[in-house]
Amino acid sequence: MRSILAPAAVVAQLALCAAATPCKPASLNGTASAWLKAYPGSARKDVDVVVVGGGSAGSNAAIHLYDAGLDILLIEAKPQLGGMVDSYTNPETGNVFDFGVATYTNLTGTEAYFERLGLSTKIPTFATTVPYYADFTTGETVAFEAPDLVPEFAALAAYYEIAKNYSELFMPSYANWPAPDEIPEDLLLPFGEFAAKYELNDTMLLLWAGIGAGLADMLSIPTIFMMQTFGPQTAGVFLGNTVQFVPESGRNQDIYDSVTSILGDAVMVNSKVTKSVRLPDNGGAALLVQDQVTGSYTVVTAKRLVIAFEPTSDNTAPFGLDAQETAVFNKGTWSIVHTGIVSHPSLPDEALIYNLPPTAVNGNDFAFPEPPFVDFFQYMGDDLYQVIVVGWEGFSIDDAQTMAQEALQNLASSGTINATDGVDLTIKSWSNHGPMDMRTSREELEGGFIQDLYALQGHRSTYWTGAAFSSQLSTYLWYYNLEYLVPLVVDSL
Ligand SMILES: Cc1cc2nc3c(=O)[nH]c(=O)nc-3n(C[C@H](O)[C@H](O)[C@H](O)COP(=O)(O)OP(=O)(O)OC[C@H]3O[C@@H](n4cnc5c(N)ncnc54)[C@H](O)[C@@H]3O)c2cc1C
Ligand SMILES: *[C@@H]1O[C@H](CO)[C@@H](O)[C@H](O)[C@H]1NC(C)=O
Ligand SMILES: *[C@@H]1O[C@H](CO)[C@@H](O)[C@H](O)[C@H]1NC(C)=O
Ligand SMILES: *[C@@H]1O[C@H](CO)[C@@H](O)[C@H](O)[C@H]1NC(C)=O
Ligand SMILES: *[C@@H]1O[C@H](CO)[C@@H](O)[C@H](O)[C@H]1NC(C)=O
Ligand SMILES: *[C@@H]1O[C@H](CO)[C@@H](O)[C@H](O)[C@H]1NC(C)=O
């Protein structure tokens, strides 16, 4: 009986002190001792900094903190580090295809990080493709007039120049973000209006297809969130102004395998935080962590907590957000992006089939599908195609795969591609990247959203990294960690 009753009693007691009500702060050691008693057989780890979330931002922050000589722990829910990296090895050819993160732009710290991981790099090459345009809801071909390369790149260069001009306001962090009434109007405009203002027409499909589509409603979000996901550096890569890298092996997962081997015992995968106590005034944090495979618990205490996952209500549930934290994150909305590697004999050789609505004709560059939608089927090599499917929060793997299957059958039944005879796509690998591209409204930005977001740094011994606090691209996140987050945490100790 004791083992059943004790945890409830302990939790009730801790909840009192974890809440924002006046109460003597729990002692971390007291909390840890109580959990150890309530969960017999638990391990215990006391560290300087615990990082939760082992994707791009969390893994990089952990390396920096480790190199600063701190005792650290990196906790990841999935079986391996890497987050949105998905490296698929074709068992038939041994060729590797990255169908999540494809490439790394070069920013301050990028080369040094690859070097620290012991990885030499190369400039990636991608399969050449032949474009097709079709409405995936009917399968009908759309007579979209693709821009010529010269005007397409001229429009992209215009975007690059403007985004670069504003970049110090949001890169590498929002530390220089202007006061609410001084935010440049350009950054508040719905991106569709911004793009019309600067006549970006000829580069809209380029901005959309690879990256902007992940926002789900690219044309209506405030422009700052477009610049956050399609940054100036990314435009620079297309324009040939700057290099991009992948590991020499052409397998992006190597980055995270290397982090895993450097950090050794400091990495806990398959691990979920189930309870937490976070103290004010940098008093530290205690986490109860459960191994999802063995069911066993580890009690962790740390002087500082770094959270490196998207702050959705599901993800943050075990962290008992207070009113200040909830008030900020409740204003965020997220899109969901799925990516898969598929094959099908009816998909034309070397095709890149874009999904556009029937209105994307007669020079209309501003017509994109309504979410949820399949973004494209893109040839990758070895008869394999990448498919990207985008929706809103709650858009499941089943929903996304069904939509991809229907798109293929629609394309075939309308004669845009060869008949399928009812045969479905073969799904070789699939990844739900979950919520991404946190954004809010113009009104919230003008109400001080970014200021309120950044005021959470250090609140309740907790520091935040990841796309919601910086940018949606790996190397921008590494730059943010290097220049902003890691010094902030280190100096607080
Ligand atoms: C299809 C696609 C292609 C992309 N291509 C590129 C590209 O070419 N170049 C580029 O730079 N960027 C690219 N990106 C974007 C980039 O991958 C992301 O912006 C970046 O990975 C975000 O990093 P993050 O650390 O914030 O989040 P993530 O990488 O998502 O990491 C979060 C981690 O936290 C873990 N986690 C979540 N909740 C918990 C929890 N409660 N407890 C423990 N762990 C938890 C997750 O499992 C995950 O591993 C691409 C994104 C997509 C969707
Ligand atoms: C934490 O508690 C344990 C057992 O209750 C005790 O041995 C240890 O000294 C305490 N540590 C600190 C830092 O108070
Ligand atoms: C990468 O960027 C850094 C910093 O901006 C720069 O010093 C370096 O020369 C760049 N590397 C290449 C290969 O362009
Ligand atoms: C960038 O800023 C400079 C200096 O403020 C300005 O002269 C220039 O016109 C801006 N360029 C663009 C493309 O906005
Ligand atoms: C660019 O697109 C906008 C918005 O659809 C349109 O009003 C404008 O005429 C277009 N410009 C050109 C040069 O086609
Ligand atoms: C479509 O069918 C034709 C006629 O059978 C064939 O020649 C062509 O290769 C097929 N295309 C694809 C992509 O399978």
From TrEMBL:
Pfam family, one: NAD_binding_8
Keyword Cell cycle attributed: no
Residues annotated as signal peptide: 1-19
A molecular function GO annotation: oxidoreductase activity
Keywords: Signal
Gene3D superfamilies according to UniProt: 1.10.405.20, 3.30.70.1990, FAD/NAD(P)-binding domain (3.50.50.60)
PANTHER family: FMN REDUCTASE LOT6, PUTATIVE (AFU_ORTHOLOGUE AFUA_7G06600)-RELATED, PROTOPORPHYRINOGEN OXIDASE
Protein name: Amine oxidase
UniProt lineage: Eukaryota, Fungi, Dikarya, Ascomycota, Pezizomycotina
